[in-house]
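EI: anyone free to look at a 203-residue chain?
SC: sure, send it
EI:
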Amino acid sequence: MITIINYGLGNLGSVQNMLKRINVPCKISSDLNEIADAEKILLPGVGAFDAAISKIDELKLRDVLVKKAKVDKVPFLGICLGMQLLTRGSEEGELQGLDLVPAKTLKFVFEPGSPLKIPHMGWNFVRTNTPSKLTEHFTEEYRFYFVHSYKVVCDSDKNSILRTNYGGDFDSAIQNENVYGCQFHPEKSHKYGMHLLANFAKL
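SC: here you go
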């Protein structure tokens, strides 16, 4: 059973529907007791970093999420903004992230006159950097749907499991032991997203 964290920001219905399509049991919850008993955790997110962290703190979810990740060692997946929340913090705001992956979140910056736009939006390819069970059996044809203005940069290459190029490489999927993150939206990425979520469900 995957517990999808409801803290007021995120495509909860879309994530739940995609998991149902691949026959993975899941539920949406913001209940501290339910989260404390969760077998697997999925942290979605859309919007601004500080607004998301503030919601998590208002609902007193930070401690239970950190315990599930660091002490109980359950499989834990952050999606889009949810991945950025796994880092120490973001240039988008001033508040501290969950600090579950040694990484930071930085704004895309391009040279003047660059044709690239912010946010990075649409389909883009990923390539394997560090092997992981989350991305098992991925090939070079794998592509996902992105919508983001900030990118994650891992402190160590070993924590970067997928990379994507958009005006330079950035870490599009990350891992620290049992904690995983993907910058793209697997729930909007058809068969490629189904594969990633199925891999997560098997962990």
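EI: Residues 82 and 153 are 15 Å apart (CA to CA).
SC: 👍
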